[in-house]
Write a sequence for this structure.
């Protein structure tokens, strides 16, 4: 049963429609770049599996903005987005291991179907049942080798165990071997719930959670142990761009904490610069100033958080990137298209005319 605010699973037999109903071709959108269209690396699909809750976030549909595959494409056209890489990073974490495994498989097939219908408009990132690492490894192989998905998505933490903890090492070993692109999205940490002031988690806790994840990856050494994973941090790195100098000043003197190796200011900088950062809700002058002091434009990506970000903010976000005095035209070209094309080579191949049949699981 598909809920009222949810998307209906697509029919994989439907014909591919690289152009939308209005006849526009986003490959030639004025919002693109000479290299190609705007690639959005941070957007989501929604799906009701029959319980009235979004399968990707486990939030009641009473609090999820309306979205369908068709309305998503229409919004992309209005904004000037050529392609969105869809993810549902929490789909395999909210239930017991067996349910998480089944739900992740169903979500991955659903996202693959959406991308198969519109291969030059959508990509798909795998959700993994990361409460059980063996199950996550099995699903990773199915998602990348059978469904032929474009990348992997993970939550920042699972039951308050953050990425960078040794619990994730077997999964990271395989992701590193595959040189995978991994998009990381924040979640509400259970420990922070009593302290959230009753505010919506997206206001403060999401940027704080992203900051905790990046810090743990740096200070645990995981970002160096798995150098071939291309990690994308959400929302411009949360509060890290504003706190980086504080970490560089204090940690070499005080240490990061018990059992953690002391790092130099340069090692902390290098760790932060190892990530890619999407610019979802992070295009203010203050955020771009701090972020571009931390990483070059070659580490920045476009994101819109469809359907959760207000639609009227999306065009101004693109305009803010294009108008930022610290970016050259070549920088904007990288942020809009080139950087993402390098992280998602299958997407790039489809956009540049090498559309092929997706995996046999599609």
């Amino acid at each position: 049963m598909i809920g009222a605010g949810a998307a209906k699973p697509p029919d994989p037999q439907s014909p591919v429609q690289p152009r939308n109903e209005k006849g526009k071709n986003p490959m030639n959108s004025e919002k693109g770049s000479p290299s190609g269209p705007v690639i959005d690396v941070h957007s989501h699909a929604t799906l009701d599996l029959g319980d009235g809750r979004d399968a990707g976030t486990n939030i009641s549909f009473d609090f999820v903005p309306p979205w369908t595959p068709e309305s998503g494409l229409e919004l992309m056209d209005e904004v000037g987005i050529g392609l969105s890489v869809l993810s549902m990073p929490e789909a395999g974490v909210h239930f017991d291991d067996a349910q998480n495994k089944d739900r992740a498989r169903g979500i991955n097939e659903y996202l693959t179907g959406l991308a198969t219908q519109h291969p030059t408009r959508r990509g798909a990132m795998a959700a993994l049942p990361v409460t059980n690492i063996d199950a996550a490894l099995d699903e990773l192989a199915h998602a990348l080798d059978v469904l032929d998905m474009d990348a992997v998505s993970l939550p920042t933490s699972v039951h308050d165990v953050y990425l960078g903890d040794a619990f994730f090492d077997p999964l990271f070993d395989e992701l590193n071997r595959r040189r995978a692109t991994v998009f990381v999205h924040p979640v509400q940490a259970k420990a922070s719930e009593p302290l959230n002031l009753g505010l919506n988690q997206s206001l403060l806790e999401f940027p704080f959670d992203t900051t905790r994840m990046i810090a743990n990856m740096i200070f645990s050494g995981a970002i160096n142990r798995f150098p071939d994973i291309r990690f994308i941090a959400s929302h411009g790195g949360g509060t890290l761009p504003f706190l980086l100098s504080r970490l560089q000043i204090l940690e070499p003197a005080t240490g990061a904490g018990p059992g953690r190796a002391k790092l130099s200011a340069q090692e902390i900088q290098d760790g932060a610069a190892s990530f890619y950062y999407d610019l979802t809700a992070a295009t203010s002058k203050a955020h771009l100033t701090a972020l571009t002091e931390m990483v070059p434009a070659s580490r920045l990506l476009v994101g819109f958080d469809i359907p959760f970000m207000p639609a009227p903010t999306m065009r101004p976000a693109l305009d803010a990137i294009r108008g930022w005095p610290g970016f050259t035209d070549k920088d904007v070209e990288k942020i809009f298209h080139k950087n993402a094309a390098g992280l998602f080579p299958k997407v790039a191949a489809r956009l540049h005319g090498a559309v092929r049949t997706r995996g046999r699981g599609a």
Summary: Confidence is low (pLDDT under 50) at residues 1-31, 354-362. The beta strands are 39-44, 83-87, 122-126, 151-155, 157-158, 161-162, 181-185, 230-233, 276-278, 300-301.
